[in-house]
Amino acid sequence: MDYYGRLQPELKSKGLHFTWSNRREEHVNTWERLDRAFANPEWFEIFEDDFVENLPITVSDHSPLILQLDKKSEFRKRPYRFEIMRTTHPQCQNRKKRLESELAAVQSNPFAPGNVTKEKELRKDMELVLEQEQLLWLQKSRANWYVKGERNTRFFHVSTKKRRARNRILRIKRKDGRYFEEPGDIEKAFLDHFKDIFSSHNDASMEQIQDVLENLSIPALSEDHIEILNRPFKEDEEMNRTLITLIPKKKTPEEVFDFRPINLCNTTYKLISKMMVNRLKLILNEVISPFQSAFIKGRNISDNIILGSELLDTIMKKKKGKDYLAALKLDMNKAYDRISWTFIEVVLQKMNFPPQWIQFVKQCERINGNKSDLLLSPNCPKNKRRWFKGILGYNLVNKPGRYLGMDMGLLRKRIVFFQEVIDKLNSRLQGWKSKLLSSGGRLTLVKSTLASMPNYLLSTFKAPANVCNKMDRTIRNFWWGHDDHKRKMHLKSWDFVCRPKSVGGLGIRKTEDMNRAFLSKQAWKIITELDALTSKQLRSKYCRKWDFEVVQAKQGDTWIWKSILEGRDVCLKGLDVQIRQGDKVYIQDGRIRKNHELQQGNGNAIPVKSLLCLREHKWQEWLAQGLLEPEDLNELIHKEASFYEGEDRFVWKFDKRGKFSVRAAYDLISKENHGGEWDYSKETEWKTLWKLKVPYKLVIFLWKICNNCLPVRAELKRRGFNIDDRCNLCHEGMETIDHLFWHCPFAKAIWFSSSLGLRTEAFVEVNIGQWILQWLRNSDCLMDGNNWFTLEWVLALWFIWVQRNESFFKGVQPDANAKRKRINGYAAKITEAFKREKETQQKERRSETHRGNDIIQGVPFLGENHWLIFWEIDKKPGNNWFGTSMIARNYQGETMVIAKSFKAANKSVARLLLVRLSLKRLNEAGANVLWCRSNRNNWKAAVQGLTFVNW
């Protein structure tokens, strides 16, 4: 109706006539035409061909209405792409169209006999198709998480549409400043660009390149390496056919240079390339320079940041002397830019690569002079500066520019340096995401994506405290549901939320603590990897007089070095030594001291290797008694000596394997900030909570109940809100969490009508949170047979909360019977969903078992020089002697038996001694392939070198 109450014309419609149904049985089934679209005359003048399409009723009780304004946009034909939903049903889209057509036919004549029953069956099939369609939108949205238990298709739709809008190329800037806007002109501009960069220009001849490389020391492959690379494989025809997709490098790309080409390879190509990569891994250490931080396991891009920062610091501080320093910052155009293929061929030949590999390996790289800079130390004369610029042709700069994505010129402005990361974090948390994601989805996003965004900088630089607080505040606000217009209450402290899940928190990590943990990894590398390039550089620059373990920061040291020293303090708290030769552990003043604990200037320190009896594998206690205090003597006697060849090895004493990790360092830091050990008295209950087979948002909901952080009226009034704190469902008692879920008449009706048949009036003194944890204490609630009962009481709590919110915000009157039906229906859907998921996992496990049949179910065939090994071990009571045995057979049925007793500090050491002896004997017998069988994973860990030792 218009302003004067006159009825406006209705838009023409297609599809169903009735748009609403009460979805009841046949004798009480009702259909109405409730949903219509109207428009004023001005609308019809603008949109002449518009109409409303009434789609079949599927999930809701209303028909979805789509307003079609004009003809649909025509999309150009694209290559076939595999979609995830095809794994659940190959003809998902066709099936959906068929079901929609059948539903429309049934709902067009709703009163025909049998149509109500048929409609229910079709709707059930449509539910499955919609779940499959959700997989499609998850894939198209590029989301890396899946919020189970709720159809978040709206979120995936919005993500996909925003991504499409961002990637759509509407115009391209020409060299003369004007723009191409027609699709054909834009296409031609890109084709011309790639034709140009794919072509080689002014290549040197092969003879010229060989002359230049003749006197250079280039590593060459050995015969063994060539044999590894030349293993035969089949090449399919046209396997290198790929789809090139253009990815914008910035928010508002205008030129062809602002797009990065990405190769979308087919499956065959990926399999071949993956196999080539796996083979190359075996020889990369031989051909990759130590100055290259990529490609080799253990090297990290942060090494280049450290090296670059320290070199720039040295250059900028060089203000005196006749010698001057220079740095070239070369911007490399990668992937499909011009290159001299002749040069690549000569280099690969020089490195002794096989001819077929020279044809396979394609890697393109050239220097982009437009973005390359020349930095000279301040003491460089002006005439020399001009000479360098003329020779190289690069931009001459007075301060460092961007390097590996960071502005190196801002290293002295720490807050400004981190501002870019803060801005990116804020841009990721746009308001629409907090609206469309549930609490479970927000938690997943925080832990998987947002928490990892700043790690690139945090692993190298110590962030200022206010920067860490800003990052935490951004993540904290997003988790509690803040958006651009509304602020939400934080019903639990951030310290509590960041606790580990096993002690009642959510496991979100604080930025400042993670920063220290990342820096401790850099310090650990300097302590344990003395041959690493970064370790050599930093030690030579800062540790000339003092060891790294004891050196202190000085005025003028770089930001990176001071940051690493803060990480070192964390390392030293968990640093211990695995004694092999006893040359890194000392006795000084009656105490056991590591190298960094020695008192400088006190020369009476003696290494503990003088107390070792290597022949008998034990300590000479009589000699140690006169040197150590009783407490330290007892520690030394119980400290395990591995008696392996080589130097003492640094280990992390808070890990059974002695292996340092960022996670272990973070746990140590968080415990210190907490003031000691966590309270693990309810660890079982919390772990069971996070394993419940219910939608993730319901797990978060239970967590809020158990931690008393739901915004009930009593809590709101306690926080200063001027509201009536009476229960909105019964208008009698105060709305606390216990009253709402236990003692409210509506809650009592829900509980009594459940299959549990609970009478909550008997639980007067029972706290609802304690009751939940008590239930979770019994791990049987995770079993399939009991999952229905667990799911039912979880949904009972959830729908009580839903009813409370509907009454509070919408004025909906409570109806226990209606809610009970919703609980049963929702429980059935969730059970079916988890059942299908379990069946899928079982199929995958069966497939894995089939592929790994030789290892998991036995070894049906042993080739020549193949041996099958069985190990066993047991401890003799009352001493440190272990009985061990090994039996092995080869492909001819011959057997080998070992039975030996070892005296060792613990079972892990005895296990390793048996493995070492077995491998030695089998090697002497000519074995080259071993199949190891045992009913315990400890043997696998022992073979892989993961010794579980208490340091």
Automatic annotation (TrEMBL):
Coiled coil: none annotated. This is Reverse transcriptase. The keyword Transferase applies. It comes from Corchorus capsularis (Jute). Signal peptide: none annotated. Residues 247-370 form the Reverse transcriptase domain. InterPro entries: Endo/exonu/phosph_ase_sf, RT_dom, RVT-Znf. Keywords: Nucleotidyltransferase, RNA-directed DNA polymerase, Transferase. Residues 660-751 form the Reverse transcriptase zinc-binding domain. GO terms for molecular function: RNA-directed DNA polymerase activity.
